[in-house]
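pinned: reference chain
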Amino acid sequence: MKRIAFAPGHISAFFEPFYFHQNLDRSGSRGAGISVSLGATSQVAIQPALQQTIAVQINGKPSHAPVTKKALQYLVGNTSLKINVHTVLDLPVSQGLGMSAAGALSSTIAAADILNLPRENAIKAAHYAEVQLHTGLGDVVASSFGGIEIRRKAGLPPWGMLVHIPGNFDIVICVIGKKIETKKILSDTKKLHEITSYGRYCTKKLLEKPSVEHLFSLAWEFTKEIDLADVKVVEAIKIAQTHGMASMCMLGNSVFAVGDTHQLCTDLSSFGKVFCCTIDYQGARLLGEK
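pinned: its structure tokens
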């Protein structure tokens, strides 16, 4: 049996990490971000087998895909199944665009439907994999709901809680530099302390005055304070801000901006590869079956 599912990419504007090593349900992040119309589409095929095998192709090539594989292992347990996954990613990995989360979540949602398992199991499996492998914290939960969100409390529902901010606009993304390994940043105790402190401040302030404008303002403040953006990223943000609002995608050498879409695409194209998308309000979902 085969199913196809889609999960939107997710841009984190700022975040405050929470780790509970004995409780992955409550681990995750508070913060804010935007789910986008570019993401991951996964076709999953499952057959009975004598032993469990999971094979993943990403954009047509075999991949180790540790997050997707671990998520599927969480979902199916020790059941002997042959699972084949073909995932198409619309955006680059390790650039703060939530692609590892989207790849894993689209795969588990498709697999759960084949196996008649609840959607909650699919979300939980992908979240567990991301948190345990230190590749992300809040992307799975955000991607599962879609929209422009403030994650008020970390983790999966019912512990995790989020609220939405209204807004409908094009988003311009520019991938500028080399990948940032999220795991490396999230394993740096000193940097993690800075991120936690400023992330808590930004989340508190946005909850006091929730708006898209305030989100971007706080995102830029967060970017400057945690000091992970290189010179080129900062330059791109400042140029983009002359045509709208912009900040750094967390955690990636990439920028997201809204405003004069045409002008933003033109100006940012000199810094790197540009993608134009919209907000995804539907969240992760099944697309069909074969």
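why pinned: The two ends are 7 Å apart (CA to CA). The CA atoms of residues 72 and 258 lie 35 Å apart.
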